[in-house]
Amino acid sequence: MKKQSICLCKGLVLIVAGIIYAASVQAQDHTVGSIEKQYEHLASRWLEISDEIKVYQGLGKFCNDPGYQQNSINILESLHHYNAVVFDILNDPETDKYQDQKVFKNTIRDIEKFEETHETEKFIDFMDDNCTYLNELETNKANLLKQSQMYSFDGRIFILETLLYRFMRRIDKKVVSIDNNIHLIHPEHQIVPLKMLAKND
Fold first, then answer.
1. pLDDT, tens digit, 9 for 90 and up, residues 67-118
2. Which segments within the chain are labelled E, that is strand?
């Protein structure tokens, strides 16, 4: 009986410790850890937000919840920050001997494309336009419900969600591609061959 209660207590301690650790990791967000882990964490967070924003209800949350809106922008800004760090590492003269590897060239290309076409300002402008449109839809909802096909309330939502999906999907694809390649960067911020990386993980 004593053994069972001791085991139960140990189990509870481990559960509590796990909860505290998870909470501390979540609170720290992406402030510590290797570039790979932080980018992976940010990419995962971004994809969650992106999936929400692609639909009408999620857009409404973004438009009407300043905290959620700022958090979304902060995550995108952090991705841009890590892109800059990775880009500098890959272009460092000391890593030139690895530059001929396809994965590094692809990562540099993806980062350049991401930075050219998916600036935070463009995202904010796009979302501002859609928030304005969402407010117009809500204001005119009673009249739009009387319309048919693409001019109806549901028709306009379908068009809006299609535009949201296409815009967000372009960002998602680049974020995922960079995330997949970025794991070739060592936690100590040095480019190393895959075999060495595998040993050090």
1. 999 999 999 999 999 899 888 888 877 665 454 577 778 888 899 988 888 8
2. none
Q: pLDDT for 104-148, tens place per residue?
A: 788 888 999 888 888 899 999 999 999 999 999 999 877 877 787
Residue with tokens 């390649």: 181
How far is residue 124's CA from residue 35's CA, in Å, rounded to a whole number?
26
Q: Which residues of 158-196 are buried (b: 16+ CB within 10 A; e: fewer)?
A: eebbeebbebbeebbebbebbbebbbbbbeeeebbeeee
Which of 121, 114, 87, 122 lies closest to 173, judged by CA? 114
Structural element, H or E, at residue 138? helix 120-139
Closest to 119 in 3D by CA, of 81, 86, 80: 80
Contact 41, 30 (CB under 8 A): yes
Q: Which residues contact 138 (CB under 8 A, 6 or more apart)?
A: none
Q: How far apart are CA 136 and CA 29, in angstroms?
A: 36
